Amino acid sequence: MLLVLIAKFLMLLATCETMTMKQIRNTGKMMRKSCQPKNNATDEQLDPLNEGVFIDEKEVKCYMACIMRMANTMKNGEPNYDAAVKQADLLLPEEMKQPAKEALFACKKVPDDYKDPCDAAFHVTKCIFNHNPSIFFFP
Ligand SMILES: *[C@@H]1O[C@H](CO)[C@@H](O)[C@H](O)[C@H]1NC(C)=O
């Protein structure tokens, strides 16, 4: 099942088809199923993410880095602005592309301050949320 979902996700990437919010949520669920156990993160730690509550704990931070890796928005172990813009253009619903790219641009330099990929993923995501909570979604 997981493999089928991953294959479907990669197919979406390959065909440049944007996703609906429902597809994004389903893809997010699939990513969480893979990243949550890998990082020993509990539901209590992860569920608040969607309300913009970022718990500063290793499990949460590394979970976020895992999700970003799966979403192809990391390069060389750090969140990558160009990769994220590319993914936003490819995948997000039309009305979300511009606001998402604005938030990414506003947070472009945040990862520079952190060596650790988990720290960088955590702080860049927090920055994106603070910039525009209305478009924020985290699986
Ligand atoms: C998760 O917990 C297991 C068992 O306690 C441990 O062996 C593993 O190293 C932990 N993984 C991470 C990423 O912390």
TrEMBL record:
Domain of life of the organism encoding this protein: Eukaryota
Protein family per UniProt: Belongs to the PBP/GOBP family.
Signal peptide interval: 1-18
Coiled-coil boundaries: none
Organism (species): Conogethes punctiferalis (Durian fruit borer)
Example GO molecular function: dibutyl phthalate binding
Matches recorded under Gene3D superfamilies: Pheromone/general odorant binding protein domain
Compartments where located: Secreted
InterPro entries from the UniProt entry: PBP/GOBP (IPR006170), PBP_GOBP_sf (IPR036728)
GO terms classed as biological process: olfactory behavior; sensory perception of smell
Gene Ontology cellular-component terms listed: extracellular region
Name recorded for this polypeptide: Odorant binding protein 8
Keyword Signal carried by entry: yes
Main location: secreted
Keywords: Secreted, Signal
